[in-house]
Write a structure and sequence with these properties.
Layout (H helix, E strand, L loop, with lengths): L5 H28 L10 H55 L6 H22 L2 E2 L2 E2 L11 E9 L2 H4 L5 E5 L5 E6 L8 E3 L4 E5 L7 E2 L1 E5 L2 E6 L4 E5 L4 E3 L13 E10 L9 E6 L6 E7 L5 E5 L5 E2 L4 E6 L7 E6 L7 E6 L3 E7 L4 E2 L4 E6 L5 E5 L2 E4 L4 H5 L6 H6 L34 H13 L3 H54 L3 H26 L8
Antiparallel strand pairs: 1-2, 3-13, 4-11, 5-7, 5-13, 6-12, 7-8, 9-10, 10-11, 14-23, 15-21, 16-18, 16-23, 17-22, 18-19, 20-21, 24-25
Helix pairs in contact: 1-9, 2-3, 2-8, 3-7, 7-8
Length: about 550
């Protein structure tokens, strides 16, 4: 016989009540959160799946955010280049008028006013920014891509030759026309610049003033005091003598000091990369890199002792400046080799050869620095898109690569003011004035066009008109590149949206509660809880006092 005591009845009743209350509380929590899994103990496997799916969704959200940013950059560039093309079309129309033989000098001067405004507007567009970052400066995004300056065009190739080198100082709102004279010399004959006199015009060639030619430590300085400008040549240059009476005689050397623009960003002209090294013995190792590198890459020798380049080489590499390392990479021994090539993820190769020693010391490091100007955003796990452009490759202008200039011991560009004034060594420039001939360099073409309109030079306007046609092709080609990247981003966004929806649905099936089942279970548990309460209350009321 099992004796059921009053204490046992009370204890079991409380246990029943607590169990039903706990089940009811769990169901209430699910009803409140709408989640089937609120903590790992609810479903350990489901919780792990939920974490993985949420991590995937977070990555998709970041890719989508990057795609939105890329779309903003590219849409801004698309709109800008479209407007640039429209302005070039207007400039071509004006140039066609200026190249017409029936136009007078006053007509060309009137056209030049609008042409200067178009030129200024093109400079502003080349300095377009998105989120306060320059979109045409390469990786130099914290300043304008271009700055106005003065430059020179000449009908004499010896004056604009890069080998001579010149710099222009000062500021002028109009084109300065310069000619050289020499008493007793025949027109068109050659003479050194230092032996000549100079005259210049600031009103388009209507009137001329006398300038100065002085020698300073081997350099020749041509001064035009009332124009506010001067031009300094690195050496005494041969020029052709002009007529003392006919200022329109083209047998002599002419110079047009006119507007242009300096590109202040960086470039991707160098296909190779530079490699620097640190650690014992690296000074005797010749290191070169080739292939594709997304950014700066560190390579480290992991052998515990010195190893020859023909031995088993263990190495690691880092793509984030040494924060994380990809370890366990090896190169099999090759006793016949005096060099070795290390493979880097993404298609990069680091070649090490003897530069006095074929030993690689433990811990030796090599920094690979790719020459690149692109800014790329990761828009999926397997692809990135470039969002910026190199301004000089679209708009041209005057540019000297600081890396090349410093490597050659030359002087870097310095701006003497912010309003069309510059000091620039032309011998380092990759864009020369080209004697006014047709070129796809937009800012040089526009600068020449302004100069020729202001000085009533019909032939020069015709040459610049041909250049504008090349410039428009260059701009529309760049526009097509931007449009292609835009379409790629839009397609990727669509794919990301579909993937995100699929993962979200999968996450919901694991994590979210089935409301129909929940409400049914909730009703059942509520009924059961009330039944337990009622039966317990009946049992707990039974005592000896009820029988007295």
């Amino acid at each position: 016989m099992l004796r059921v005591s009053t204490q046992m009845m009370y204890t079991q009743s409380i246990d029943y009540i607590n169990n039903k209350l706990s089940s009811l509380t769990d169901l209430n929590e699910q009803a409140s959160s709408q989640k089937r899994v609120n903590r790992p103990s609810d479903d350990a496997v489901g919780a792990a799946t939920i974490l993985n799916l949420r991590t995937t969704l977070t990555s998709y959200d970041q890719y989508m955010e990057n795609a939105d940013t890329a779309k903003g950059w590219l849409a801004t560039s698309d709109s800008t280049l479209t407007q640039v093309s429209t302005l070039i079309t207007r400039a071509k129309s004006l140039a066609e008028q200026g190249a017409t033989g029936t136009m007078s000098d006053e007509n060309r001067k009137q056209i030049s006013f609008e042409m200067r405004q178009i030129y200024e507007q093109l400079i502003a567009m080349a300095n377009t920014k998105y989120q306060n970052k320059s979109i045409y400066g390469g990786q130099v995004t914290d300043q304008n891509a271009f700055s106005e300056c003065l430059w020179m065009t000449s009908n004499d190739a010896s004056l604009s030759a890069a080998s001579n080198g010149f710099r222009i100082e000062g500021n002028s709102d109009t084109t300065v026309l310069v000619q050289f004279l020499k008493s007793g010399a025949s027109i068109g004959s050659s003479a050194t610049m230092s032996s000549c006199d100079v005259r210049y015009s600031i009103d388009g060639g209507k009137t001329f003033r006398l300038g100065t030619v002085t020698s300073n430590a081997g350099q020749i300085v041509v001064g035009m005091p009332e124009s506010g400008t001067s031009i300094t040549f690195a050496k005494d240059v041969q020029v052709k003598v002009n007529s003392p009476t006919d200022t329109n005689d083209t047998k002599g050397s002419w110079m047009w000091i006119r507007p242009s623009a300096v590109y202040k960003g960086d470039d991707a002209d160098m296909a190779s990369t530079t490699v620097s090294s640190t650690g014992a013995g690296t000074g005797l190792v010749a290191a070169t890199a080739r292939g594709s590198f997304a950014g700066n890459t560190l390579v480290r020798i992991d052998n515990s002792t010195a190893v020859t380049m023909g031995g088993d080489i263990q190495y690691s590499y880092s793509l984030d400046n040494g924060m994380n390392w990809v370890t366990g990479n090896t190169v099999a021994a090759d006793a016949t080799s005096n060099g070795t090539t290390l493979n880097i993820a993404g298609g990069g190769l680091l070649t090490l050869a003897s530069g006095g020693s074929n030993l690689l010391q433990p811990g030796a490091q090599f920094l690979i620095n790719p020459h690149t100007a692109g800014i790329s955003l990761q828009i999926s796990s397997s692809e990135s898109v470039r969002v910026n452009d190199v301004g000089k490759d679209i708009f041209g202008g005057i540019y000297q690569d600081p890396k090349k200039v410093l490597a050659n011991g030359g002087a870097r560009l310095t701006m003497s003011s912010s309003n069309a004034s510059a000091v620039f060594d032309s011998s380092s420039s990759i864009y020369n004035s080209n004697g006014g001939n047709a070129t796809k360099n937009l800012f040089e073409t526009m600068g020449n066009l302004v100069a020729f309109l202001e000085t009533n030079n019909q032939q020069g306007v015709s040459q610049a008109l041909e250049g504008l046609k090349l410039c428009q092709i260059q701009v529309t080609t760049s526009l097509a590149s931007v449009g292609g990247r835009e379409n790629r981003v839009n397609t990727t966004k669509t794919v990301l949206g579909n993937l995100s929806d699929s993962v979200t649905a999968q996450l919901s099936s694991v994590e979210d509660v089935d409301l129909t089942k929940l409400l049914t279970h909730l009703s059942q548990q509520e009924t059961a809880y009330q039944a337990v309460l009622k039966s317990s209350s009946m049992i707990m009321q039974m005592s000896l006092m009820n029988y007295i």
